[in-house]
Design brief:
The protein is α+β, with helices and mostly antiparallel strands. The chain has helices spanning about 10-20, 40-50, 75-85, and strands at about 1-5, 25-30, 35, 55-60. The chain is about 35% helix and about 25% strand.
Length: about 90
């Protein structure tokens, strides 16, 4: 989940601490806001959103489950040689 939260100088330490508790990463910093990336189960993301609401959520992007195919463990040339021998 990517979230931009209002974070003036007065509350920035609180927002940073909240991000730290959730193992989130601050990916962009502005004068009045922080963009935070959080990964995890739905419950974790919901809890982070609920706790960030009082600061003011400017923007929120949330994705569903994402899967990637496993990466090949052999170089392409070796796979071609093995296939030719079979």
């Amino acid at each position: 989940m990517m979230m931009t939260v209002q974070a003036t100088a007065e509350v920035r330490p609180q927002v940073t601490e909240l991000a730290s508790i959730f193992d989130a990463k601050i990916v962009d910093v502005g004068f009045e806001a922080l963009t935070i990336m959080v990964a995890g189960e739905s419950d974790k993301l919901d809890a982070f959103s609920d706790l960030a609401k009082p600061f003011g959520i400017v923007e929120l992007q949330r994705t569903g489950r994402i899967a990637l195919a496993r990466v090949a463990r052999q170089p392409t040339r070796l796979r071609a040689v093995k296939a030719a021998r079979a």
